[in-house]
Structures are given as structure tokens and as C-alpha cells.
Amino acid sequence: MNFQPFARLIAEHFARMTEGVEMLYTVDVDRDQLWNYYLDSYPAGTNEVYRIRRQYDCSCCRHFVRTMGNVVVLQNQEVHTIWEISGAPAPYQEVADAMDAYVRAAPISGVFLARQASVGAEFSYEQLEDCSVDTWAHFHLTLPKRFVVQTDATVEEFIGRQAASKQVFQRALEEIAPDAVDTVLELIAQKSLYRGEEWQGLLTSFRAIQDEYADLPAEKRELYLWEKLATVGGAMTRIRNHSIGTLLTDLSDDMDLEAALRRYETVVAPTNYKRPKAVYTKETLEAARKTLEQLGYLGSLGRRFATLDDIRISNILFCNRDAARRISGSSVFDAMLEALSLSPRAFARVEEVSAEDFVSRVLPTAREVEVMLENRHASHLVSLIAPKDPESPSMFKWDNAFGWSYNGNITDSIKERVKAAGGSVDGVLRFSIQWNDEDGQNLSDLDAHCIQPNQEEIFFGHKNARTSGGALDVDIIHPEEGVAAVENITWPSTQFMPEGEYRFFVHCYTRRAGNTGFKAQIEFDGTVYNFDYPFSLRQEECVEVATVTYRKGQGFTIKPALSASASARELWGLRTNRFVPVSVILYSPNYWDSQHGIGHRHYFFMLKDCKNPDTPNGWYNEFLKEELMPHKCVLEALGSRMQVEPADEQLSGLGFSATKHDELTVKVRGASERILKIRF
Fold it and tell me: Which of 518, 532, 544, 522 is nearest to 436 (CA)?
């Protein structure tokens, strides 16, 4: 019997079935059993003993069958073996059919890779006793390079890695909920996921694979997984092990969306990362809409700038003559009284007064109030916000529907931005700086520095001071256009802080663009000191901010190096470094109508001709009632979308929190004229 045509058919079939195929597989059969099954597949009388072994029991073919006999190709979840031939002469076709059925019935065990390209031997030669030479044909083929190991890694290492990838891929498809993938894709589309665009294509493909996998019958899924292993790549198969996989797994385990995102951002985001948008999904959006509708708050969403006509006289601490005529509750007799001319007596001495005493003792007799508007007041600019529908119910924790918005849509600028950037604001001593917060064009790299009493310097090149526990925990190198940048140094405890002077300054490491300076905060003992430096810094310029002295048993004292104001500039249509008339003074709406204890009290000095040029948020989540907190993500996004439209008539001016250390110089006219410094 001529074996050569059989061997040639096997080699030719292998070449055809591997065209365009990137990966070969093996089935789970014992190699010795496979070889014995091959020998036993020959019909009776066709594989008799030759010399001491059966005719087809040769070492060359045994090596080939043990190496290649269980190799298969997967196409559309169908198994194709190397034995899948036709037209072989008897008895070889019968052998091939038996081997094909035997191998096809076994499960896939892994991928195939060979150490060398040549498998088997095409011919071998034997010299007989009469010196003649017999030629024996064998199984033989040459593997394409893609099926031969090309690296220093062993075949076993490669096969092991592929098996592990398949297992991880299977777990991902079965354990990651499709809804979780849909949610993440929705967040990416909203640009609410840090570096989410990098995963968009992969997740879209993964989601499609999930659907395909779920639609397959159980017996086909294993083949599908092995087949996909060849085409999807390592990032896909090991998606569960990546940072995005952590987020997907957490969402699949029903973790709260905000909590899952915080875990994800802890892994992938730099310390100065702040999520740009509130996150929500179609489901959470619909749930929030239903709640707002049920509670009757849909009409409360529209917001606008408040005007004098909105304010009841009982909620006003002071108003000037022009404002008094418009306020609900004032009378013609009040107007006649205001018309009386006064000749106030001027006092050159500056008196200090607490905010509480200013309200209770000074304002009752004041007829005119002016504030000294300073550059550092930019973060104190505030607007009063009213509902478009005055009859709509209040969504807020207090009884009225009025709110407020500070400059830049934040309530306490620097501290809040530091917190959002991952910095600590709870230490015993804090130094924070902020820049690029005005025109958004100051893209320079400014650095916060502190030289401690032992001359150890905390800055970007030495972020952690082991001797004191102080640390730079927010370091921004490349500010984004239009996004305020912050840096932060804080000490968690005085336990290890050496006594002496802590010198704080700002260094311009790289000047790039912009004509603005920076703001700074130093906080200790619950008191916040604010500084403003409006000038652009030169390359390598250092600006001293302040020196804080620490003594055990005495605590901290401060010696400012920066003055409170500098050259004049324009803030919301008003020039700084001059006195500006006050139209109305009032508490923040959470303290109107004798309400107490609903958040922090703010003092608002609404200024004449002060106009907010921006479109502030309609509300902030910290204002909202507890019943709306389950929908805080949607409402935060709604607050930024339901922005207040620009208006010429508005109540805007300066706001000061009762919980933050600050001061304001005012000129008060009544029976006399006084210059007062109000302490908050």
C-alpha cells in the first residue's frame, strides 16, 4: 500500500484549513491513546506485524500523530481537524474518518504552538542486507511562522497565558452585567468618566460580544470563547483585570454609582483630578423626573437672577434710598423721611466691629453704606437667585425658594477646589494656592512652597516632609484652559511639627501665558486668611505670601507678607480699590424669616451697578431637601443645565460666610460718617 498520497492529503488539507487562521487549538485527548487509536483504526489485515511491530507503527509517524493529531481549527464554533480529508485510497480514508470523529468529539484543551516549524519527516531510508535501499513515506508538514514560538518564552508559558486569558475573558462575559457596560458607555458619551474615551471602542465591542455569547447554546459557548481569543486581543480578554473592569465589576455588584466612580478614579486619576460633570444614566434620570413630578417640583426648576422686587422688607438688614422706594412694605412716609438732607460728621479713625455688632448696632442708624471693593474680593462675588415661577414650592432645606451662587459657581472657592482635587483640608495648618480662575488663560506652572524651621522645604521636588508630617498633596503642572488650578500643602497634626517659622511662598516654575496672578489661603485654628496677588509672575519669580510661627502651648500666629489689595481692576462691572455704594444688605436666604440653623449664615452686601456676567447654576446639591438626595447626581447635572440667563437687573455683590475668617472695610453715613472694618 502506498502511504505517500495519504500523507500528502493530510499536509495539503492542513495548509488549506489554516489559511487566514491566527490560532490553532488542541483537544483534550491523551497523546498515547491517540496514537494507539490511530493504529487500531486500520481495518483488519491492513496493519499486520512487520518484523517486530505493526506496519504503520513507526517512530516518525508516532511523533507526528502525538504532536499534530489533536490539533484543530475553529470556525464559527465548528471544529475542523487535520484528518478531515476525502479521496484517500483504502484503507487510509477509513483511518482518517475514524481519527476525525475521535478528535472532533473531544473538548478543546488549549491553544497550539510548536517549538519548530518542521513536524515529522517526509521520507526515511533503510539499507537492507543485500545493500538495496527501501524508502518509507511518513506524515510531514511545515508550520507557518505564526504557529511557531518566536520569543524566548517557552511553549508552555505561552499556552498557559492563553488559557488564563480565556478563563478571565469567560468570567468577564458571565460576571459583568450588560447594564453595567451600558452605564459606563453612557458616562463616556457624557464625557463624565476620566479617560473614558480610551475605553469606548473596546467596551462597545465587548458589549456586542456579550450579546453574541448570551445568544449561543451552552454547548457552543466554550468554542466561541476559544475562537474569540484569537481575534479580540489581550486588552479585551483581560478587561476584567483593568481599571475599567473594576468599575464594571463594582456596578455589576450593585455598588452605588458615585462610590464605584470614586474607586475607579482613585486607581486611574491623578491627585489633582476633578470629575468635570455629575454622572447619571437614563434610568436615574427617569427616576429623578418621576420624583420631581410627584413632589410638585417640576415648576421649581426654572431660575433667574433675583431683583429688589422679590425681597420682602422683613428680610432686609439695610437698604439705601434708591432701593427703599422699591421694596415691598415701605411707605410714602419712609420716602419722605429719606428726603431729609443730612450733614454727617466725618471720622478719620478706622474702627473694628464684629459682623454681629455691625448688624445689630450700626445698621439701624445707617442711611448710606459703601464697601471698599478689593482685588481679593473676586471670590466673594455673589448673586441672589430666584425662581422663575414665584408660586413654585421650594426644593431647598429652608422655607423660601431663593438661593445664591458665588463667583465661578462655587460656594467657597479655593477650599472646595482643593477638596475636589483630592487634597486634605482638615489638617492643623493648610496652605493652598489657586490661579487660572479669572480669564482661564493663566497656563503657567505655579508651585506652592514652604520652608520649615529646620530648613526642610516642601514643594513638588520634595512632597513629603518626614520630620513634620507636612505634605504637598495636590500638584498641578499643566493647567487646563478655562479651569482653575490649585496646589495644597497641609500638616495633619502638630505632634511632629518643629517649633519656629514656616515661610510660605509661590514660585513660577514655568511661565506660559496669562496676565493674572494667584490667590492664596492659609488656615489654622479654624481661621482662614485670604491673600490676592493680581500681577503676572515672571519666569522663576518667587512671591512671599506669609510666615506662620508655631510654638508649643501657644499655637500658631501669622505675619502676612502680601497686602490685602494691589492695583485696581474690574470685577463684575465695578472698579476695585475704591468705595462702592451698597444697595441692600441681607442674610443669605437660609436665614430669612427668622430661620436658624439651616447651614452656614452668609452676609450679602448687594452693590449698586454690580452685574454678574456669567450664567450661574440654578442651584447646588447642598441646598436641596433630603428627599431629593437619592437623585443628587441627576439634580447636580440639572443644576448646571438650568443655568440662570443673563439679566441687566439683578442683586449681586459681595458675600461673606460667618464661618470663615475675613474682613471688609465699609464707609457708613448716618448722623456721622465712619470707616469701619467688619470682622467675619
Answer: 518
